[in-house]
User: Which sequence fits this backbone?
């Protein structure tokens, strides 16, 4: 295919290190011993661990080959919708790896770790400024964990008002973690259907919101990449009935420095530092999902909280109304440093620009692709655009076929079959870190694939062809993973 970055290359097979090793090989030379040899085997450590013996070149080739079986944002464009796979600047890693952080013991008394506490304190303040909310805890380890903290705060709030509530309103575009987090706290999710315009319908919320309902969980922009324009009116309805508004902030990349979520009526919000604030997460973590709240809910935030008493930064533990600890020590501290460095290196002006470019790039892909792929909602999009396989169905080509063919052409596939209310969804989030040339190549390749769907559907059905493995049985792989090669 013309222009596609994916080309046929040599992908080596690679056995396990244990299969490769040969007794007596070694990867480094150590000085000849000038003392009598003594065996550690036996009493101290049995026969010793079962490590294979390998030379340096064998180890280097092993890991280099394995790294070539992988794809990451450092390899190429990764337009995985709802995941914000932006490029992560290496300066974040450099600072997070500084020995002053990595060797700081997490149980140091506050007075001996003022620097590390100050970073948490300042990060809390920055996140508060970026979201508009009043107080932040950086403890949760991921978005879903932040949601759980948020739902515990909902519960604590309603308990403090003397009445337990049982239900929660849940838009049908919500990420699966939303209903799961609510259910973990004993709330029954009440589904709300997305309206014709791809956003929530105020009348439906008015009908469903009652005094048994703890509140609503809203993702804004939502997972269709559309801005929930009625959020303020919806928040008013929920607040009138004594409920709270939860904001899923996973899509914050579209609105940094532009939308104040407190002014939208959001009471509790989580952020995904590993998405919006540029820390690597393709491999599943570690992440960080700070939870941000309005002033009235501050007392419920997880403990400890980092505060400043005018002269010292303190990890405050004496907080009787807190929902308790969500993580050991201070959360995933390395991730916090990366986000902190990112925020400082961008500054307010460029964080806002990042959001503007994220939206511009998605709008560009949307406009350039809409004659080739069916657009779920033909409206101005935010940071991602949701298409479907409707136009390709007549050639018996599905979203999965398109995604697999894209892999052969050198791209990570977009998010597919989500959100659930769009049949055969293809959700593309290019992010702000792709250049115009990169976007043009991607669009060109995607257009060529849609042409192939018509001219050569068999090619798409048989994709991918350039990988070590073909299509996997994904259900089997998820339910019965074989991790030993
Ligand atoms: C990613 C995401 C989450 C969950 O965040 P994790 O960090 O993966 O736990 C929740 N909601 C939305 C909309 C997301 O995109």
Assistant:
């Amino acid at each position: 295919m013309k222009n596609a970055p994916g080309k046929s290359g040599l992908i080596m097979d690679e056995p396990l290190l244990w299969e490769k090793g040969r007794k007596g090989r070694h990867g480094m030379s150590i000085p000849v011993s000038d003392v009598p040899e003594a065996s550690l085997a036996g009493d101290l450590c049995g026969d010793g661990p079962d490590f294979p013996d390998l030379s340096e070149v064998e180890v280097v080739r092993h890991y280099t080959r394995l790294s070539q079986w992988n794809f990451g944002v450092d390899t190429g464009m990764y337009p995985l919708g709802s995941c914000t796979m932006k490029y992560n600047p290496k300066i974040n890693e450099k600072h997070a790896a500084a020995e002053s952080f990595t060797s700081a013991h997490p149980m140091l008394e506050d007075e001996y770790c003022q620097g590390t506490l100050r970073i948490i304190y300042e990060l809390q303040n920055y996140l508060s400024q970026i979201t508009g909310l009043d107080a932040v805890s950086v403890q949760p380890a991921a978005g879903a964990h932040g949601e759980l903290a948020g739902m515990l705060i909902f519960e604590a709030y309603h308990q403090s008002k003397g009445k337990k509530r049982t239900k929660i309103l849940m838009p049908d575009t919500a990420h699966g973690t939303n209903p799961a987090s609510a259910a973990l706290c004993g709330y029954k999710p009440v589904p709300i259907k997305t309206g014709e315009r791809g956003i929530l319908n105020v009348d439906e919320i008015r009908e469903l919101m009652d005094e048994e309902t703890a509140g609503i969980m809203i993702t804004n922009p939502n997972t269709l990449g559309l801005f929930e324009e009625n959020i303020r009116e919806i928040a008013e309805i929920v607040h009138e009935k004594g409920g709270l508004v939860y904001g899923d902030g996973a899509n914050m990349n579209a609105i940094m420095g532009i939308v104040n979520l407190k002014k939208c009526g959001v009471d509790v919000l989580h952020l995904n530092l590993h998405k919006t604030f540029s820390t690597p997460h393709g491999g599943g973590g570690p992440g960080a999902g700070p939870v941000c709240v309005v002033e009235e809910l501050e007392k419920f935030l997880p403990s400890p909280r980092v505060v400043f008493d005018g002269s010292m930064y303190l990890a405050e533990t004496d907080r009787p109304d807190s929902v308790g600890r969500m993580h050991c020590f201070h959360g995933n501290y390395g991730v916090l440093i990366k986000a902190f460095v990112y925020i400082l290196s961008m500054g307010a002006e460029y964080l806002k620009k990042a959001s503007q470019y994220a939206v511009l790039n998605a709008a560009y892909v949307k406009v350039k692709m809409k004659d080739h792929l069916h657009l779920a909602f033909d409206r101005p999009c935010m940071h991602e655009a949701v298409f479907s396989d409707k136009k390709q169905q007549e050639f018996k080509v599905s979203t999965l076929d398109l995604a697999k063919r894209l892999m052969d052409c050198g791209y990570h596939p977009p998010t597919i079959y989500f959100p659930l209310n769009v049949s055969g969804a293809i959700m593309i989030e290019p992010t702000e870190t792709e250049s115009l040339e990169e976007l043009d190549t991607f669009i060109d390749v995607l257009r060529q694939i849609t042409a192939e769907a018509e001219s050569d559907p068999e090619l798409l059905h048989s994709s991918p062809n350039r990988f070590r493995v073909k299509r996997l049985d994904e259900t089997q792989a998820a339910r019965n993973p074989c991790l030993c090669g």
User: Anything to note?
Assistant: The two ends are 32 Å apart (CA to CA). The domain at 348-467 is CATH 3.90.1150.10 (Aspartate Aminotransferase, domain 1). The first helix runs from residue 17 to 20.
